[in-house]
């Protein structure tokens, strides 16, 4: 079996690679962002992609979006998402795009190496391996407003955005760095499903979603 790994954490990337090697599974490429994932899949045509959700540059949903693009370019390409997060919008799109050869596991819930390797082989063979917690979260969130999926800090940032504060002003108010605020804002846009638009500013649309909730 030939695998491509997309994971921005070098320790986890190397760890998964060595774990798979111990089981006779070859990693043909190990990359740290979505663009490199697309290039690696095009070059190697692997039997499976193991993909994190949040990767550079914005650490929101790049990995998952790249995985969906890979499946679009190469229908049936097996993808196993391995992440700390359940990214609702694109997770549903990935699963809805065809149930065969798809997996979604949460890193903190992978407690057994054998079970992980079994999941890798099952997905590569066209099966599925979806953590029960992922299914539960998707079912619960589907009944809520998208704003309800935000963390308390993200809701706090969005509330300050609704007050008209800039990212710098929000950082000063919360006593955090500008970079931390930018990351929260990126997460907010991703969770609310706000893609870049020429007609409406995402910041305004996010505030409207907050007020509507």
Tell me what you see in this structure.
The chain is an alpha/beta fold and 213 residues long. The protein contains 10 helices and 6 strands, in the order E-H-E-H-E-H-E-H-E-H-E-H-H-H-H-H. The chain is elongated, with a radius of gyration of 18 Å. The mean pLDDT is 85.
Q: Which sequence of SSEs, written as H and E, runs from N to C?
A: EHEHEHEHEHEHHHHH
Structural class of the helices, strands and pairings? alpha/beta
Oligomer: single chain
Rg over CA atoms, rounded to whole Å, is 18 Å
Q: Quick one: overall form?
A: elongated
- Overall pLDDT confidence: 85
Strand order, main sheet: write it out. Answer: 2-1-3-4-5-6
Q: Strand content of the residues, in percent? A: 5-15%
Protein traits:
213 residues; alpha/beta
List the helices and strands and how they pair.
Elements: E1 2-6, H1 10-22, E2 26-31, H2 34-44, E3 48-51, H3 62-73, E4 79-83, H4 88-96, E5 102-106, H5 113-124, E6 128-130, H6 132-141, H7 152-162, H8 167-174, H9 178-191, H10 202-212
Parallel strand pairs: 1-2, 1-3, 3-4, 4-5, 5-6
Helix pairs in contact: 2-3, 3-4, 7-9, 7-10, 8-9
């Amino acid at each position: 079996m030939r695998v491509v790994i997309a994971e921005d954490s070098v320790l986890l990337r190397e760890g998964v690679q060595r774990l798979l090697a111990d089981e006779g599974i070859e990693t043909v490429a190990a990359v740290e962002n979505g663009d490199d994932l697309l290039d690696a899949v095009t070059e190697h045509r692997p039997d499976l992609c193991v993909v994190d959700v949040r990767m550079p540059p914005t650490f929101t949903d790049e990995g998952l979006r790249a995985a969906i693009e890979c499946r679009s370019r190469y229908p049936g390409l097996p993808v196993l998402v391995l992440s700390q997060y359940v990214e609702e919008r694109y997770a549903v799109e990935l699963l809805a795009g065809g149930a065969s050869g798809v997996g979604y596991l949460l890193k903190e819930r992978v407690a057994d190496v054998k079970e992980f390797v079994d999941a890798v082989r099952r997905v590569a063979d066209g099966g599925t391996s979806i953590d029960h917690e992922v299914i539960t979260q998707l079912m619960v969130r589907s009944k809520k407003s998208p704003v309800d999926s935000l963390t308390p800090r993200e809701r706090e940032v969005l509330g300050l955005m609704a007050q008209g504060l800039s990212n710098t002003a929000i950082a000063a108010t919360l006593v955090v760095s500008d970079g931390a605020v930018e990351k929260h804002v990126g997460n907010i846009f991703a969770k609310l499903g706000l893609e870049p638009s020429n007609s409406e500013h995402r910041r305004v649309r996010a505030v409207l979603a907050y007020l509507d909730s």
